[in-house]
């Protein structure tokens, strides 16, 4: 997930470069269609935005009486609906407050779904607009791939956390753990990741810290994101190293119990 800016709710966008690279590599790796192509009826290749804009600019060869270029307002095909995650949001979390009366699919809703209480992912349009504002090479066609990756990676992180929290579910009186807050700390490599790089392994491309509310008990988790090996299906591949942080006795106890096989 992410830093606590409005653009980042409910998840972070700083992993987008890795997602874009893998998404575009996957598209490029797809085999060409086996059916013959009738080039006489084939559509011309799409132009880049710079080519499209330059086609509307006057040149020195244009007659002085030429009419001004038409104003073009490209129509966005990006989906504005937002997907509700499976990650419950703790009511004690202060990040991304939800305006009163906002629906789960409204762009102004930056927090949780009113019905389920779960975090809500940004829509394709919100994701695209945020990337543009921050100067990324965003393309609308990428959003169909990047946004599902974005959501799936966070769902995978939550499933890993649920495995760590499973031994405590029996004594839970509040319905299980909930995500309270999150932060991006990609500029601070974890000791585990640093040690692995010394051994020759690739460094993670991102790091997130999540704070879990376990019925009033705060548990800090750290998540290192690694690019995985190709799965042979042409899709992006990621590896997540999720574990409790060692900054509290609870985290130390959980790691020790997992290491000894007692949890």
From TrEMBL:
Keywords for the protein's UniProt record, in alphabetical order: Heme, Iron, Lyase, Membrane, Metal-binding, Mitochondrion, Mitochondrion inner membrane
Catalytic activity: holo-[cytochrome c] = apo-[cytochrome c] + heme b
Low complexity bias: start-end ranges: 52-64
GO molecular function, one term: metal ion binding
PROSITE patterns according to UniProt: CYTO_HEME_LYASE_1, CYTO_HEME_LYASE_2
GO cellular component: mitochondrial inner membrane; mitochondrial intermembrane space
One Pfam short name: Cyto_heme_lyase
Keyword hit for Heme: yes
Signal peptide: none
Subcellular location(s) per record: Mitochondrion inner membrane
Biased composition annotated in UniProt, kind: Polar residues: 83-94
EC numbers on record: 4.4.1.17
Matching InterPro entries: Holocyt_c/c1_synthase
EC class name: lyase
Span list, region Disordered: 20-112
Similarity annotation: Belongs to the cytochrome c-type heme lyase family.
Record function comment: Lyase that catalyzes the covalent linking of the heme group to the cytochrome C apoprotein to produce the mature functional cytochrome.
Protein name: Holocytochrome c-type synthase
Lineage: Eukaryota, Fungi, Dikarya, Ascomycota, Pezizomycotina
